[in-house]
Here is the input.
Amino acid sequence: MFGNRRSTRAPGSRPGFRRVGMRQPGRHRAALVAGVGAASLMLTVSGCAGFGNLGNQPGVTTITLASVNNPQMQDLATLLPEFEKAHPDIKVNVIMMEENDLRNATTKDVATRGGQYDVMTVGAYEVPMWGRNGWLTDLTAKAKADPSYDVNDFFKPVQQSVSYDNRIYAAPFYGESSFLMYRKDLFQKAGLTMPAHPTWQQVAQLAAKLKDPSQDRAGICLRGKPGWGEQFAPLTTVVNTFGGQWYNMSWDAQVNKPGFSNAVNFYVNTIKQSGERDPASFGFTECLNLFQQGRAAMWYDATSAAGTLETKGSPVAGKVGYVSAPVVKTKESGWLWTWNLAINSLSKHQQADWEFVKWATSKQYEELVGQRLGWARVPPGTRQSLYANPQYQQASSAFAGLTAQTLRSVDPTHPGVDPQPWTGIQFVGIPEFQDVGNQTSQQIANTFSGGESVADALDKGQRIAQIAGDTQKREAGK
Amino acid sequence: MTAVAASDLAETGTGPTINESRMERSERSFARKIVIPAFAVAIIVTQIPFLATIYYSFQNWDLARPEARSFAWFHNYAAVVTNGAFLPALLNTVVIVGSSVIVSLVLGLLLAVLLDRKFPGRAVARTLLITPFLVMPAASALIWKWSLLDANVGMINWAFGLVGIPPVAWNTDFPGMTVVFVLTWQYTPFMMLILLAGLQSQSGEMLEAAQVDGAGPIRIFRTMTLPHLRTYAELAILLGTVLMVQVFDPVNIMTGGAGHSKTLSYLLYERAFIGQQVGEAAAYGVVTVIVTIAVATVALRTLFRVFTEEGGGGR
Amino acid sequence: MSAEVSSRVRTRPRLTGRRVGGLGITVLTWVVVFLFFFPVLWMIFTSFKTEQAAAQFPPSFITHLSFDRYATVFQRGMGLYLANSAALSILSTVAVMALAIPAAYGLSVRRVGRWQDLLFFFISTKFMPVAASIIPVFLLLRVIGALDNLWALGVLYVGMNLPLAIWMMRSFFAEVPYAVVEAAQIDGASYSRELWRVSLPIVAPGAAAAALICFIFAWNEYFLVNLLTAVVARTTPPFLGSFVDGRGQFLAVLSAASTIAVLPVIIAGWVAQKRLVRGLAMGAVK
Here is the structure.
């Protein structure tokens, strides 16, 4: 459309006007047209919709896995060629996503019955709900069919976390609980000892003694970042052990009741007194960095953090002690989170999907990771046999025993003092909880700066939680 | 017909009169022909989704409870009004976007003036200055969050420490400001690009004449450059505002919606994807559009040269 | 007007006369450039560190540097996503400019009736927050079978960028001196020729800025891609997002991926800003 470059002077007197620079656009236009042509051609050749399908071969079943981007899943992706060697007629396409994106994409897909993903990593929060809605394939029969798969090898709480109504809807791939990590060397230097089963009050006192502003070191790092899975994962366990809960058996919200409010006051005050600066920024990875850099004396968080802390090159490797999650009124208080592989009930490749899921959650896979990548990288927290494996014990001696013990002892059906009408320790197994937890955590984050009082924050949380509670009452009444 | 009269007729846009020559009719038909494709595309691509959104705003649809889907009359709109979340979010958006636009406009002007001259490495400097706008916003937010604004290990607090200022807990104490930092940093190049185009379209001859007349550079800037830049500044402000209102990555990644950082776009995202209320989110969207149209109508038609001056500040 | 004036017009007078002032301002300019560029520079520097070094404080300036992070990024298959991004961004930008340039002309130099209302309409299409309409859009696309499809995404991007391009080009076209347009008319040029051969070259720098901005928005667009594509049409931004790790350290590898992703856009930016250097001074002849 811009034609060739010719003499730019049109006939007639056009005073003072010269089309300088016309040559450049001409060259640019030609390059542009060429680029556009090439791009269009490439697209048309590849089947019109995009390049993602290059490499798909006929006769091979391609299954799409939508996965969270955790280290264990990254390792799974690198080991896929092993699976494809053993199953040459199946190809697995992995789409890694950040956790929130994954949740949005998979929820939207199953809720609108899209069927875009065949296999998905689904968390302990969603599996029972999605199973109940019929969005995930019932795996009970398949899992029990092969004795070598050994379904009962999974920790009982872990099995519970993927079940609804005694049917299994996902295969556990990764499990974690929580415990308290502390710097043994700093304790020694200060002449303090960590009790074998600490209470939260003891931990708060220790944190106050260990904080050291001159070294810019916090006494303890606790998550404060807004989010139902960020701040409220540890905070809900604190609530549970203080005797509080989100809802009672009649689905009345208990957010501003004494148990919950004592717990939150304790948590906020401990952070303000001996915790990290700028707590509203701190989620798992931020605390990990802080603790690893030696700028926190203690850290209460996921059992899987130990793996990163103890790898070669970590500044705190070998200096970290591990003790069970602090309690107040309960015997234990670790949380339970699992990432599981679930099959979309709309998937057209059910058999291939199961072959893959079975492979990825089998004892053989753990063996494979141990041999190829190192035993410290085996996905922890699902199979009991892993913790009896001497090679694994050797690679993770500092924390494996405690992890196994914690995973065995948590009870997702009754984690707190009072009974609760859902299964789940650090979350409430209702769809509205994401929203309730998020909004309440935002309110609590506002209290760190003193901008809001804890009582006000919890009152707001109570209102939001009660709306969801009412919905549950309606549903339960049906 | 003189050229002036011809242009008058073209501007009024009334129907053909007896005096109108074939030229004006063919001009108008040409103008219509070239505008229609863009107009048609805009209608199809934006209004069909808009109608669909309005449709869903009358539905009660919780993504996580698909069996409970029903027709909701105005229930969602009532929720928007009574929830109490809309006005604070609107206020936060006005403050955050307003600050970011003003600061980035001023900085953009400063940069455009600095880059308007010839100096060694100008092309490199310009390209480097555009980079904040080029990096993916989510990646920028992460870099700012981790490397710069982190209260314990970030470089800004480290730099503060070098001059003796105590470290600031950015996300806890000033969540709104962290968003303003990142937005300003990202959008200053955008402002700069537009203002630079404006600076370069100045009449060099007239500038030279003014200099010859003895006016100093500051005076020339104040009396000639700034008025000339008005249309460009208006363009930059309008586009910058419209774009920044949609931004939610910094809020999502850095502050999680705490404090005064919960903007309209984050509130909507929360309603749609965390609350999983398709209908309610759609209603929020429709209300936002109505409010924005009202505000924009008033603002544009009273302030912006495009709409106030005959001919729109150009011809 | 003589030809001498027009050739002089190409270089504009310096507003700062003296050498010392010139040097001082140049230094100031470079300081400002460095401050603005610093976060990006830091990102690039981080991409060569190990994850542990990236998390270190005080920030480590001297550390073992390697390309390992880049190897990880490519192993994850970035090429495919880059190709998708390139095709999508280039095609949608070309389409946007092809629609916006004529439309902007018809709203500035050769105006349609009610052009102000049209302008307002175009910008009003950007008032709807994406999150509110994304599920309806998702369902619409599903009904017509256009999910996970670059063409569908491209059409949406055209709708997304069209208001920006039209408003920008309109402002630039409005600066074209009427004398030039009139002269073309007198010479017997058709309206079409007047648009493409006479007016557009004058605003070519502005068109370059507008095209660059549309390209950037298409290249970096995250939200729509995340929810409307799965495997086939996935582009670079969600790929970058996938490096964010909930249980590990990821700043170095994310920096590497971001650096790779920003390179094509920097090249586009370089090309576009060169057009900005050259004469909009063209428009100086009155």
